[in-house]
Amino acid sequence: MQRILYFHGLNGTLSEEKRRILEVFFDVYAPQLNYEFDNIDQLIEELLPENTFDAIIGNSMGGYVAYHLSRQLNVPSLLFNPALKERSTEIQFTPCNHYGNHLSLVYAVLGKADEIVSPNGTWEELFSDNQNDRVIFSCHRKLEHRIDENTFKAEVERFVQFLAEK
């Protein structure tokens, strides 16, 4: 079974319902974080030498961390409304600024009705990633910032299909 690293959003958590959806396909490691106080750089530094992950999933602020860490590790990522262009708070996380060839899938789920994280800003940020031509967007016209369980399940299943094709 593939192992994933999951980063929840700001002031959030991985709900038991969503964990069960993920556990159908993955062995899930999902640390509970306080982005405003935890040192994410230190957590990653301690976590990575001991563990390997086949993919990284993140939501909102966690999508920001997941995107950059997946690029650094060259593993696929599934991002739900990632806060790539703007964030409501600064966190102790320093994205690597040189990635080399990032050839792994970046699958971004964007809510067109998201008023917290601009889907257009995320689109621009990912579209400008000229080091990777494996960026796939799934846009939902009525989806707001919170990801409902049905959308989450459907998008995880699509991501798993894409992983099987690699």
Which tags fit this structure?
single chain; alpha/beta; Rossmann fold; six-stranded parallel beta sheet; 19% strand
Task: Outline the structure in words.
The chain is an alpha/beta fold and about 170 residues long. The protein has a single domain, classed as Alpha/Beta hydrolase fold, catalytic domain (Rossmann fold, 3-Layer(aba) Sandwich). It is about 35% helix and about 20% strand. The chain contains 5 helices and 6 strands. It has helices spanning about 15-25, 40-45, 60-75, 120-125, 150-165; strands at about 1-5, 25-30, 55-60, 75-80, 105-110, 135-140. The chain has a 6-stranded parallel β-sheet with strand order 2-1-3-4-5-6, sandwiched between helices. Helix 4 links the parallel strand 5 (about 105-110) and strand 6 (about 135-140). Helix 1 (about 15-25) runs parallel beside helix 5. The longest helix is centred in the last third of the chain and has 17 residues, at about 150-165. The chain is globular and about 40 Å long. The model has no long low-confidence stretch (mean pLDDT about 90).
